[in-house]
Amino acid sequence: MDGILQVKNLSLIKDKKEIIKNFNLSAERYSISAVIGINGAGKSSLAYVLMGLKGYKPDSGAIYFNSKNITEFSITDRAQLGMTLAWQNPSLFEGLTVKDYIQVAVKNKSLNIVKDSLYRVALDPSIYLHRIVDKSLSGGERKRIELAAVFAMRPKLAILDEPDSGIDAISLDKIIHLIKDFKKVGSTVLLITHRDKVAEIADRAFLICNGEIIKEGPTKEISLFFKEQCNECTHKNIPISEIVREGNA
């Protein structure tokens, strides 16, 4: 079985609505794969299913990680295998310092790794290392701290849910470089985004609409289709076959 992550015919129903529909995806080892789509397309739900969050058990289909069927695995089991998720809206771990927050799940607790990870997300360690993680941090700061923590973990698979959420334009370039650097430390990235600029760094892209993959291929091709066809989405309740035909017209 090719690829570190294989998703086969995955479906998820919540509140009597099919959120993920017959979803198929393959992510190659040490690559960046982008799942791109508008808000509400099912991207975050996909991330939660892949990570095994409570309430997001698929109704059908299978998930394979390193050729192992992990569909029934808990979030803890998946984390132990080397999977991790950077949330679109990071949780607060109030009372911890930024240093402790980053080191919680890191095997190598070297201070140099912590500092390096903070530098990579444009946060000065001399300012942030001993700062308390609390509500005084902005959403963008929390997002960058979480991305630094995920990078420091050196996961086998990093699922990054909207890593640019709440990030200012100046910091965005740093975040893009950080995502590229995951490959250099031996990680595979599944990048979930609605911004074509962020998706463009991926090796391959998957376009999701109404919970289904409607196109996949080289990132430039998929980003162009997304930019021209999907930013002002008219696809609600339109059969997938009609969307694809429209895009190929």
TrEMBL record:
Residues 5-235 form the ABC transporter domain. One of its GO terms (cellular component) is plasma membrane. Coiled coil: none annotated. GO terms for molecular function: ATP binding; ATP hydrolysis activity. InterPro entries: AAA+_ATPase (IPR003593), ABC_AA/LPS_Transport (IPR051120), ABC_transporter-like_ATP-bd (IPR003439), ABC_transporter-like_CS (IPR017871), P-loop_NTPase (IPR027417). Pfam families: ABC_tran. Keywords: ATP-binding, Nucleotide-binding, Transport. It comes from the Bacteria. This is ATP-binding cassette domain-containing protein. It comes from candidate division WOR-3 bacterium.
